[in-house]
Amino acid sequence: VVGTGTELLAAGTLESGIWQAGDGSYPRGQFSEAWTGHADLTSVGTAAGTCNGWTDTSQMAGVVGIFSVENGGWWSDRNESCAAGAQLYCVETGPPFGGKVVFLSSVTFTGNLGGLSGADVECSSLANHAGLPGSYKAWLSDGSASPSTRFTQASVPYVLVDDTPIAQDWADLTDGVLAAPIALTEAGAAVGFEFVWTGTKTDGTADVGGTQCQGWTDATSTWSAAVGLDLKSDANWTGNRAVTCDAASSKLRLYCFQQ
After folding, report:
1. How much is the CA Rg of the chain, to the nearest whole Å?
2. For the chain, is the Cβ count within 10 Å smaller at the N or the C terminus?
3. Can you spell out the DSSP letters for 19-38?
4. pTM of the prediction?
5. Measured between alpha carbons, how far is 62 from 86 in angstroms, rounded to an integer?
6. Shortest CA distance to 76 belongs to which of 33, 31, 30, 38?
């Protein structure tokens, strides 16, 4: 294992160097190079660093990585003459997950999320930054909508970013018990005991016992909302207690679900 997809795209550090070729051999020497064309993993390489779109051996600058290292040098070590020989990294691009991806947000929020749509934008932004596929919505309800009405109710499993299944489908997700807690962020980081904004019951309908922070637009102590616990897989994962919506005491995470 060299790393998960999110590690490759977001962190830039591998668990092991990419030593082995497709035929099982170990090419060339310890510091052998691979063409990448990337100065960093979040941008597309320039023509000057990609041998004119990998069409010209007369160019003097093609970015290479060193495939025996785990840090940033694996994808960007130096410029090499385009006439030089180098290896290629070959990455499978098939479906990366065994179902719809679910994660716990790596950042925390007050009760003013800009409404349901604002919370959905936060989830999608985190997922996009981590290189996760698809679009995302927050597991939240307000006075007029809830996951039961606004989510795509999947017939495939719901999985964490390490492919651990939490439910086999929508019916299993909303039966009151998860197969595993939702305690990994979009980047695969494990999170300890923390509260999560939900305003939602286990069946995906709105928890009418709280005010849902005035439709997730108010961060004062006047209002409250139901919250879950990230390390729980029983009903407490989404409905543990109500807390006030102000930043001083209630800056919490979100559950984000791929649609």
Report:
1. 22
2. N
3. ---TTS---S-TT-EEE---
4. 0.66
5. 10
6. 38
Strand order of the β-sheet with 62-66 is 78-80, 62-66, 33-35, 87-88
Q: Where does the chain show beta strands of DSSP type E? A: 33-35, 62-66, 78-80, 87-88, 100-104, 136-138, 158-159, 165-167, 195-197, 224-229, 241-244, 253-258
φ, ψ (nearest 5 deg) of residue 256: -120, 130
- Count of alpha carbons within 13 Å of 68, Cβ hemisphere only? 8
In tens, the pLDDT along 127-182 reads 999 989 999 999 999 989 999 999 999 999 999 999 999 999 999 999 999 999 99
Task: Answer for the pair 119, 138: CB distance below 8 angstroms, yes or no.
Answer: yes
Q: What are phi and psi of 79, to 5 degrees?
A: -90, 140
CB 141 within 8 A of CB 212: yes
Say how far residue 100 (Cα) sits from the centre of its chain: 12
Of 78, 50, 110, the C-alpha closest to 249 is 110
Distance CA 106, CA 6 (A): 13
For residue 117, give both structure tokens.
């749509």
**Residue 202 neighbours by CB under 8 Å, 6+ apart:** 174, 175, 176, 235, 237, 238, 239
What region, left, alpha or beta, does residue 24 occupy, with left being phi > 0 and alpha being psi -120 to 50 degrees? left
Measured distance CA(239)–CA(243) in Å, rounded = 11
DSSP per position, 153-200 = --SS-EE-TT--EEESSHHHHTSS--SS---BBTT--B--S-EEE--B
